[in-house]
Amino acid sequence: MSHHCRRPLRRGRICCTFDPSPRGVIAAEDREENRAMSFTVTPLSPAIGARIDGLDISRKLPPATAKALYAAWLEHVVLHFPGQDLDANQQKDFARNFGRLAERARDARTRPEGADYDSNVMLVSNVRDEKGQPIGSLPDGEMWFHHDTSYVPEPQKGTFLYGIDIPSTGGNTLFASMYAAYENVPAALRRRLAGRRVLHVYDYTLTQRLDPDGDLSGVKHQWQPLFVHNPESGRVALYANRLMAARIEGLDRADSDAVLEELFAIAEDRSIVYEHVWTPGDLVMWDNRCSTHARTDFPASERRLLRRCTIEGAKLEAAAEAA
Questions:
Q1: For the chain, is the Cβ count within 10 Å smaller at the N or the C terminus?
Q2: Is the separation of the CB atoms in 49 and 77 below 8 Å?
Q3: Residue 8 burial class via C-beta count within 10 angstroms: exposed 0-12, middle 13-18, buried 19 and up
Q4: Do the domain assignments include residue 285?
Q5: Total number of domains in the chain
């Protein structure tokens, strides 16, 4: 029996109206800044993602436009803004429409890069400077599906990634809907796992999951609800990923491993995945509460440079039930 979750593709133009402040005549500069902007929303796959056209996000957004974008983000989880020209400050200003900027989760002393840049910004790159030092993090190769910062008590809510230098092939980002994954978990398994937590563990020096029964004292780790409720959308998402989910609470090791493999297969099913092929000038943002992402391999000899910032999150809310 197929448990695949699909939704109809809808394309539409959102026109945002703005109610000006009753403070008399608005200066010309203010009228320009507060002018309502319209944009189109085109779904990118049946399960997750939408492309936003018609906006220059390097400019300050009117409140009504920002509110409409936020609603589109909650609905589609991943938003793609093509053809943008952003410096780091403009990227951060855009992200502030959705929340408070987060500091990087990784301590500066443990970062591989030699470059000195803003603590809110991270470069994802394989480029090295003249001394041979990496200018960024997460340089090469494939990455398994993961939530960003799921190994801390309050995982970052959203990620904003901007494409600068893109290889000729590969380095694509796969996004999976964890709403659809939850719906695709068989009902009997959902009932069995209701109320349980999952241990998320990550060591930046490794490329595979750690042994959850080993010494974790020097490694960031956190128990999280296996099924999380997003209070803004009202929906429930699976919160487990292949890179970091190591152990399900209350199950012995063999049973936990088997159940996790079943959940990973559901969570990575291609029917709930959108694959983004990067172009320079792309800004892609995603909701970490209800999506995972992965990276495909790419030629190590070619430059890849993207710039990332994130917004703060909160303690994850466990789903009340798993019906």
A1: N
A2: yes
A3: exposed
A4: yes
A5: 1
Residue at 218: amino acid letter: G
Amino acid, res. 240: A
CATH assignment at residue 323? 3.60.130.10
- How are strands ordered across the β-sheet holding 173-177? 143-146, 291-295, 173-177, 273-276
- The answer as to whether 58 is a domain residue is no
Structural domain range at position 296: 102-323
User: What percent of the chain has pLDDT above 70?
Assistant: 75
Give a yes or no: residue 312 inside a domain. yes
For 8-23, what is each residue's pLDDT tens digit? 444 555 544 333 333 3
Question: What average pLDDT does the segment 196-224 reach?
Answer: 76
d(CA 211, CA 201): 9
Q: How many CA atoms lie within 13 A of 262 on its CB side?
A: 14
Residue 103: pLDDT over 70? yes
**pLDDT tens digit string along 187-202?**
999 999 999 999 999 8
What letter would DSSP give residue 307?
A: E
In sign, the C-alpha dihedral spanning 313, 315, 316, 319 is negative
Residue 61, domain member (yes or no)? no
Q: Tell me the C-alpha to C-alpha distance, in Å, between residue 126 and each of 138, 164, 167, 226.
A: 7, 12, 11, 33
Indicate the SS3 state at residue 294: strand
* Residues contacting 32, CB < 8 A, separation 6+: none
More confident residue, 35 or 7: 35
How confident is the model at residue 208, as a pLDDT? Answer: 56
